[in-house]
Amino acid sequence: xxxxxxxxxxxxxxxxxxxxxxxxxxxxxxxxxxxxxxxxxxxxxxxxxxxxxxxxxxxxxxxxxxxxxxxxxxxxxxxxxxxxxx
Length: 86
Fold this sequence. Notes:
alpha/beta
């Protein structure tokens, strides 16, 4: 079952977001359909969890990224890394 990402992935939720993902067992299947913005701290959490998944042989993917999430990741040059697209 995918983990539905918060609407606002900003500094205010960064610690909660990190705890949520660190406590997750299994693959990191994330649903980004409702994300309206992503800040630097939550972006760092996603990148860290992606690296952890790779190290542990777990899957990491973001399903149904919202247009806002796509745009933010494209602007930051991370679409290819986090969404598997340029």
